[in-house]
Design goal:
Elements: E1 13-17, H1 25-34, E2 39-43, H2 49-59, E3 64-68, H3 73-82, E4 87-88, H4 94-103, E5 107-108, E6 110-111, H5 114-122, E7 127-130, H6 138-146, E8 153-156, H7 162-169, E9 177-179, H8 185-189, H9 193-204
The chain binds 3-phosphoglyceric acid.
C-alpha cells in the first residue's frame, strides 16, 4: 500500500489543523495549498472536524486531506466516510491498527518508545508518527533509533517548528514532519488566510541540507 510519505514527497510538512468552524475549512485549505502544503491533517478534536474534511475533499481538489487524532475504530470509519485520504493516530492498539489496515488508506500509528516501534514492525508496519516528538526526545532520540531499527520511518509531530523541522527532515529515518506552527491561533481567529499562506510557504521551503 502507498505510504503517507509518498502522498506529497516534495513537501514533507503536514499542517495539523484543529478546526472550530467548518466554514473556515475551504479558505484555510486553499491557503495551505497555495503556500505549497497540499497534505492537510484535520484532527478529530472538534465537532466541526468531519464537516471540514468533507468540505475540503469536495472543494479543494489539490489538497490531500487526512484525519488525525483517530483513536478508535469508529473514528477510522467516520474519517474514511468523510473522505480522509490518510489517517494519523497519536498511539495505537491492535484493534485500532486492524481498523486502519482495513480502511484501505495509508495510515500513521503513533509511537514514542522503542518497544512500540518493535511491536509495529512485528505487525509489518514501518511508517509511524513519532509523538510527542520534542517531549519524547526529539532529534537525538530518533537518531538513536536509526541504528537498531533502520526499517522504521517516522513523521515526528508535537513541538516541531520552523526552527527544528530541518533537523528532523535531515535524519534518514524521517519521512515527513507535522505541526501547527503555520496555523497560529491569532491568524485563525482573525481568518487571516494570507498570513497562513505566508507561513505555509515558509514551511514548504524547509529543505534538507546537502548531505544532510
Ligand atoms: C498535535 O497532535 O497536536 C500535533 O502533534 C501538533 O503539535 P504542535 O502543536 O506541537 O505542532
Amino acid at each position: 500500500m502507498t505510504s503517507v510519505f509518498d502522498l506529497a514527497p516534495e513537501t514533507p510538512v503536514v499542517p495539523v489543523v484543529v478546526i472550530e468552524d467548518a466554514a473556515d475549512a475551504v479558505p484555510l485549505a486553499r491557503a495551505l495549498v497555495a503556500g505549497g502544503l497540499p497534505l492537510i491533517e484535520v484532527t478529530l478534536r472538534t465537532p466541526a472536524a468531519l464537516d471540514a474534511v468533507r468540505a475540503i475533499a469536495a472543494e479543494v481538489p489539490d489538497a490531500v486531506v487526512g484525519v488525525g487524532t483517530v483513536v478508535s475504530a469508529a473514528g477510522v470509519a467516520e474519517a474514511v466516510g468523510a473522505g480522509a485520504r490518510f489517517l494519523v493516530s497519536p498511539g495505537w492498539t491492535e484493534r485500532l491498527l486492524g481498523a486502519m489496515r482495513e480502511s484501505g488508506v495509508p495510515f500513521l500509528p503513533g509511537v514514542s518508545t522503542a518497544s512500540e516501534v518493535v511491536a509495529l514492525l512485528e505487525q509489518g508496519v514501518d511508517a509511524m508518527k513519532f509523538f510527542p516528538a520534542e517531549a519524547a526526545g526529539g532529534v537525538p532520540y530518533l537518531k538513536s533509533l536509526a541504528g537498531p531499527l533502520p526499517r522504521a520511518r517516522f513523521c515526528p509531530t508535537g513541538g516541531v517548528s520552523l526552527a527544528n523541522a530541518r533537523g528532523y527532515l535531515s535524519l534518514p529515518n524521517v519521512g515527513c514532519v507535522g505541526g501547527t506552527w503555520m496555523l497560529p491561533p491569532e491568524a485563525l481567529a482573525a481568518r487571516d488566510w494570507a498570513r497562513v499562506e505566508t507561513l505555509a510557504r515558509e514551511a514548504a521551503a524547509v529543505r534538507v541540507p546537502v548531505g544532510g
